[in-house]
Design a protein that fits this description.
The protein is mainly α. The chain is built from five helices and three strands; from the N terminus they run E-E-E-H-H-H-H-H. The termini are far apart.
């Protein structure tokens, strides 16, 4: 007996193009279709699907320099260690990664030392303490 296929997520439509390629779209009701360009089943596909459901624009891919901190984070997202994490853990780490890339994404990874990590940690702790003192 064959396993039953898993149902598709809501509002996800599969279409085969004239050239025989598969294209995925999100369409809610009679609204506009939003194309999902990432390969089906990948974390990028899930992110684009969620963005389309929330009617947010797709995040533009930025060019990252090889060897930069942002490049290393992208490589980490391609590993099984990343894909084996729960979606909640990935979401939490994505928030952390977003802040790290904004602050130091273009810095070559060879320039990141233990001292620079400790200084950043101490700066965030001091900012947190300052915010707590202001609210009290």
């Amino acid at each position: 007996m064959q396993d039953m296929p898993r149902p598709r997520p809501p509002h996800l439509q599969r279409q085969v193009t004239q050239r025989g390629r598969v294209a995925w779209y999100v369409r809610i009701g009679k609204g506009p279709r939003t194309r999902i360009r990432a390969p089906f089943g990948t974390p990028e596909f899930d992110a684009e699907y969620q963005a389309a459901l929330a009617a947010r624009p797709r995040l533009a891919k930025t060019e990252t320099t090889s060897g930069s901190l942002a490049w290393l984070i992208e490589r980490y997202r391609e590993t099984t260690a990343w894909t084996n994490l729960s979606s909640a853990t990935r979401r939490q780490r994505e928030n952390i990664f977003r802040q790290v890339v904004e602050a130091a994404g273009k810095v070559p990874s060879s320039k990141i030392t233990t001292g620079s990590i400790e200084r950043g940690r101490d700066r965030r702790i001091n900012n947190m303490i300052g915010q707590i003192a202001v609210t009290e």
